[in-house]
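Board notes (copied after class):
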Amino acid sequence: MRAMVLDKPKQPLQLRDVEKPRPAKGQLLVRIATCAVCRTDLHLADGELPDPKLPLIPGHQIVGYVEDVGSDISSSVAIGDRVGIPWLARTCGRCRYCTSGRENLCDAALFTGYTVNGGYAQYAIADARYCFQLPEGFASDELAPWLCAGLIGYRALRAAGDAIRLGIYGFGAAAHIVTQVARHERRDVFAFTRPGDVAGQADARALGAAWAGGSDEPAPDELDAALLFAPVGALVPAALRSVAKGGAVVCAGIHMSDIPSFPYATLWGERRVVSVANLTRRDGREFIALAQRVPIRTRVASYPLERANDALAALRGGTLAGTAVLNVA
């Protein structure tokens, strides 16, 4: 099969013919239709995440069709079904995190496109228990961003509690999706983009944001909570200064630059800074059900598989109009 392979961080991915995988016990063989490109993929390519499997096929927002199944498949999935393969590839199921509803924190977890091969390829294998059945009525490329941007955005929104005035810093794929969910839940969204990103601010308003401006601007009103999707540590104290007493700043990325020091008075008043790590299967089931009711619509920029490096470069440069998606089928 054809695949884009990362041999070493800070080097371009290489298009290769590699052996087509075979499903083992409990696994699915999935013929990939499309795989969305995530900022986590960019962090991996740029050497900002530790200890990836190398060589590695990146990609963890995978939509495809079940072509074969291994033995002892306990789920109801069948050959021909369209499924989604997310970031969380497998957990131990036995540790204190897994047994308390926090499998996203499992120390022995495996991650798609990081510690196991992912979706920048024609085929992938995945543990059937961690795949999601996907709904009809949505195109495969439209669904791909649900598998990470949607899931992490959903988990971040839930970490913000019942906040009504919601600040969103960094208006990329996750923000586009979570804004739709927030408006569905009758929350007011205040969107903070890169300074001068007029197009991004217009996108936010078109999605129903009450206000949109640069991240160097003060919030026009006191926020109940803020979600940070931009991997910029300096935004943490900025967001804290905009959050009301008792509010939360939720850091939703897997990687962030260092957070600068700030006076305790900025945190005081029972404000909280929390991070979101990975996802649980419950998050996936809840979000997919909710996304159909909203309904969530995503805007994508399509690339063929062999142009994965171009898609990563566009994400790095902030020039994407929508989520980059690799069309494989």
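Comment from the instructor: The domain at 151-275 is CATH 3.40.50.720 (Rossmann fold). The radius of gyration is 19 Å.
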